[in-house]
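Model: Ready when you are.
Researcher: Fold this.
Model:
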Amino acid sequence: MELKLIFQLIRRWAWLLTIGVLIGGGIGYVINIYQTPEYEARAKILVMEPVRNSSATTSSSLKANKEMADTYLELLFTQPILDATSQKVGATLRPNQIRAERVGETGLMEVVIRDTDPERAALMANTLVQVLIEQNEALQTSRFSSSEETLQAQVAEIEQELSNLETQIEQRSEQSIGVQTQEITEQKLELEQQINSLLGEITVLEQDIDDLTPKAAAGLLPAPLTLEQRNLMNEKRTLLAQKQFQLDLAQDAYTELLNLPTGEDAVVTSTDLRDIEQANLDLYRQLYSTLLSNYEAVRLARLENTPNVVQVERAAPSTVPIQAGPLRYVIMGAVLGLLATGLLAFTLEYMDDTLKTPQDVANVLGLPVVGYVVNESAMEKSEGMPYVTSSPRSPMAETFRSLRTNLEFASVDKPLKTILITSPGSGDGKTTVATNLAAVMAQANKRVILLEGDLRRPRVHRALGMSNQIGLSDVFRGQMDIRDVARYSKVKDLAAITSGSLPPNPTELLGSARMAQILARLVESASVVIIDSPPFVVSDATVLSAKVDGVLLVIQPGRTHAEAARAMLAQLNRAGAHVVGVVLNRVPRKNANYYGYYRYENDAVYSIENTPAEQPAAAGDTRRTGKGLATMFSGKPGKIGEEVVS
């Protein structure tokens, strides 16, 4: 059932959905025409984990690769890299032009650059990758630059000392004792200064290492060192070991000089001095070798901890823009237009509280729908004779016959002698339903009286082509009897009582005991009395509903609001009225099948084609004469005598 309602909603708003599709498709086509084409250039880079992590387990390696790839993906969007790329290319590279992602679970990354110029897009992609590689090397080199610079300076210093010692040994000759003693004294002083300087540097390094060492608070574990702190700690310890080694060498040389004999009686030969200098040369060479080893160790550590970023595929200019063709834009625009208008239709439908379907009537009022009347312009314009009489073979006549049958089944236990036709508002077609229902009942060989109960805006006389000079108001004033104002219409067995002149107090008249007496007399004279009443915007229909056997509500789908219908039903229940059911009037022809109306004009309908049509009475039929009316009203001839309504 819900699916059926959805299809009904789509059919009802098909015109709006069609407009949305056309407008959306047109907008999509216009956007495609005026949009500047853009191109994409793709480059691929490979990020390999450091050599230090190459022996890690598979799971940890995959995790490290993912984290490293995510790091480099974010690094692509940093401002320094964007600025450097823009400067090299000569055009501004914006973050929204870049799209980067990993290729599966591998270490490959694809970098996509979008630009209006295909050549510039390819240049930006390749330059961006090159800048990333350069920045990676610069970042990793900066972590070990301090240690490398310190070791390079020390190596250069030791090289200078080695060169000086070698020169001194080569130029050494026999010298006097005084000169030798002076040189020994100078060397002692130099060694003392070097030892004191090394001791000071060692003290400072030990203090720095102690400051970097985490201190445990009371009851807590020491905080772990950060990566920068660990690197700085290693640099300090390496430098401390080097200074300690230099101190040991200087102290050994100083000890040997102290063991040499001094004074005027000491004899020092050049051979002894050369031996001492040669020993110092060997010590400096050993120190030089150690420094070179430390320097290479730092470089190796940098290489082992540096991820390798390599461009494996260069970006090439594209010849096809990334924008879709006009068909895709039209389809996208049409879909968006359909969604927008669908949402609008749903909103309007949700906000619309009018009764549209029999299910709405059942849910809101709890009443059955006993008849459906399709919106037929010819029926609305038919005046002077009911439509079912002038067109007895029409599908519309068959719908009123169905309504007549439904009312007969609804009155099996208690016949409906008086039926009130009313509606929640004006303009719902009460008079049309009342006159055609009265006519179709008269065609079933029943004596029917159609009473105009609307003393404010009467319309029955127009529908039947009668004058309205005399009527029900004259009976209330006592000027005429009910039989004097009743006149036969052009339909056999159908008499009508119009309103007459309009009274100033219609509600009081309709609710009076006199009205009850009039109805009782009409019931005695006819098989069925049908009353066309005012809408429920006035209280006339309420007072009449308590005096009749059944009330038939006329509701126009899509026009009658649920709250108005509820209020009308509540008033009828308070008045103790018997509501027979609902007639849906002016049902749109496109929804006729849904409401139970079948298109007889396209099908062979045996009930119409094979059954003789019900025709108006012949001119000689006494039931259309004043004598017939007099017979209907207790057999007494009426004052209007032999008049036949033309």
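Researcher: Now this one.
Model:
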Amino acid sequence: MTEKRRALISVSDKTGISEFAGELVKLGFEIISTGGTARAIREAGLEVTDASEVTGFPEILGGRVKTLHPHIHAAILARPDVEEQRREMEKLGITPLELVVVNLYPFEQTIARAGVGHAEAVENIDIGGPTMLRAAAKNHAYLAVIVNPQRYGPIIEELQAKGAISAATRFNLAAEAFSHTAAYDAAIASYFNTLSEVDTALYPERLNKSFKKIQELRYGENPQQQAAFYASSQAPTGLAAAKQLQGKELSFNNLNDLNAAWEAVLEFDETTAVAVKHANPCGVGTAENLKEAYILAFEADPVSIFGGVLALNRPVDKEAAREMSKIFLEVIAAPEFTAGAREVFKGKKDIRLLEVDPVESSRDRLDIKTVSGGILIQTIDGEPVEVTAGEVVTARAPGEDEWAALGFVQKVVKHVKSNAIVIAGKNMTYGVGAGQMSRIGAAKIALNQAGKKAEGAVLGSDAFFPFPDTVEEAVKAGVTAIVQPGGSQKDKESIELCNRHNVAMVFTGRRYFKH
């Protein structure tokens, strides 16, 4: 075999490719290329050998077949240290490649565009590219493979300094190439599963999901834990697509709390503020304007909100910003911050401001949790809370204000960790009992926090009452209406107790456990 140095370049993302090819030519490489990549390199004034000249066969089927040929793949997969393979290559006139530079058709970008049809999506499934990448990555002991334009500069520097690419670099590049093709195939599989009408489409036998690192985090929940933030490799949505306007980098706990706050605020159509501490809503308020909604959320629990995370479903204006800047908040997330609001927050540089798309369709379809040795998957509970569709099981039906309060409280309950009890009026929370081992324990916390505000308030529960003790405590505190799923063997006792004290109770038939 000859000592000619050859590099094959065929890229969809042409960022920096002409400059990279120019440096390779200076180092004595012959450039082999295809289609649009070859044109781009020629337009830079460089000589290029078309892949069809190497294969002796033209590109066919509209470019679907151009590199799937033994003269390409033998040049990639050859082992120069094996005498028999060397003789075979010489006999066939095939020169080994030293470098393969490939990135793939933009499948994910294609399917992310509005109105893209299936036929166009299919045409953007790369075949030759992944085949070359896998072959080159497999044979990393003898050649290098590059999928990331950010690697061009360091590779040129290494070639200039050492005359060759080291074994360690080739290994790392191969790992990146295999990750690249795995993510690509995962995106295609996910797309097809999404379109599938088969019952198992949502939960396929093999789950292939790809995530791309957004950033490494300082640490996890605690300083002794390492952490990073990843987004779906497909078009990022929700918090993964948020734009940070100011403040320090987000921490693991910030993101976890922010997710809880954002999911809760999306529950409301009204102008709403949701404050979260340790992944639980500590104050929720709705009002005609954002400033008033925030004040209600603050007054719901002025102690816990300090150092908390705030999610809002309306643009933040100057007046609301002034009110929010009176205390320390870790993060404020909203669809938008006006210029006036940004000016106010300039004086609070530690507050992280995030603009997040409030569109409901940006929410994930699946909720994924890790367990030892595996993961649990469930669909998100995305259906609106409809308390008025429930069954009034007491002699007295709720009044107009009580119905409004019951609808409000159950939207909050849905986002409180179980066991969950919430005491509220029609536009703000008064007490939140979260994550308790017993329902009566959660009720006592919520009622104690509400204090005198419980008089005339409503109570919401995420699950049925196994005993009437929660109703007893609510009645003593002055609660006038209760909403719960129903379904306990002792429902009758709770209903009778409500009737004796003229308390209205509604069964929704829908549980809201959250773990």
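Researcher: Key takeaway?
Model: The two ends are 64 Å apart (CA to CA).
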